[in-house]
Design a protein that fits this description.
Mean pLDDT: 97
Strand order of the largest sheet: 2-10-9-4-5-6
Helix content: under 10%
Oligomer: single chain
Distance between the termini: 40 Å
Shape: globular
Largest sheet: 6 strands, mixed
Order of helices and strands: EEEEEEEEEE
Strand content: over 45%
């Protein structure tokens, strides 16, 4: 079955960096657009970026220029490099199979990884 497993979360200081990973299995990873979505404490889900199988990327305005999404199709891995972290970046980070800008409730996601940014 489809499985996604995020890792790499943790604590960082404002201005710091973290790299999150998402290990995929159970589907043809290279064929799918993959998304990153986050949820700040007490708030809703926010799609902040995605990547096509050809490695072209798209970002939400809140992270553009700070975060970088990449993938390794041979290893079925999805990544996001979080740079210039801000306290507002605190939250749970999820990877999704598919384009989470549309019909997110129908998509498979991992269990999430927590990112906490302190000032």
């Amino acid at each position: 079955q489809v499985k996604l497993a995020e890792s790499g979360g943790g604590s960082a200081q404002s201005g710091g960096s973290l790299r999150l990973s998402c290990a995929a299995s159970g589907f043809t990873f290279s064929s799918y657009f993959m998304s990153w979505v986050r949820q700040a404490p007490g708030k809703g889900l926010e799609w902040f970026g995605g990547i096509y199988s050809d490695h072209s990327t798209y970002y939400g305005d809140s992270v553009k220029g700070r975060f970088a999404i990449s993938r390794d199709n041979s290893k079925k891995m999805l990544f996001v490099q979080l740079n210039s972290l801000q306290t507002e970046d605190t939250g749970m980070y999820y990877c999704y199979k598919g384009d989470a800008r549309y019909n997110i409730a129908a998509l498979t996601r991992g269990q999430g990884t927590q990112v906490t940014v302190s000032s």
